[in-house]
Amino acid sequence: MGNTAQAGKAGRARFVPLIVIGVAAIIGAATLRDHLTFDALAQNREALIAFRDAHYLWTVLAFMSTYIVIVAFSLPGATLATLTGGFLFGLFPGALFNVTAATIGATAIFLAARWGLGDRLAARMEANPGRIGQMKAALAENELSMLFLIRLVPAVPFFVANILPALVGVHVGRFIFTTFFGIIPGGVVYTWVGAGLGEVFARGETPNLGIIFQPQILGPILGLCALAALPIIIKALRGRKEL
Fold it and tell me: Which residues of the chain fall below pLDDT 50?
């Protein structure tokens, strides 16, 4: 009986990180949305720049820690955080700080999902001989390509791209690798926009967040998507020829 009770408690404990993330996301959406805005950044820009100039390392650490928490707990403000990184630190090293912090935060939520659900769900998918098992096998066969695709395609929400790999048993090393390099194109674009926020605020305007969908930006990103999908297409064509 004692072992059974302990096993039950251990099983329930696996869900604690996901519950904490869910609760934090709900509270954050309700309380922070009105505070994490462009207006707030514009009003505090001089104080932020002054603090950065006086305490550069502490500013970097505080910024990255905040960014990690925003991503790990799925709080509102990830886009604003990326722009702030460009505003405070320029395109480089701002893009490096942004991508690194986003990858760490994404890995945290990935591990929480995997610990709570991923291993069990992946095992069930592998044991299922039907379509679910076939889908798991297809994902495993083209894992790197699929992981890069869900990072590169602008339409895939960042939260979904963090959770889905955990539910199909993706190795943490591959998740980190594809997350870091897969979010670089979008991260660089928004960091670049953030680097020009000073002039935007001076004109009393708001930044154009739709810039990523403009042809000169979206075209190269879609090209990277096509490159990531190429191994999947080649395997599919080879499979048809063998049939």
Answer: 5, 7
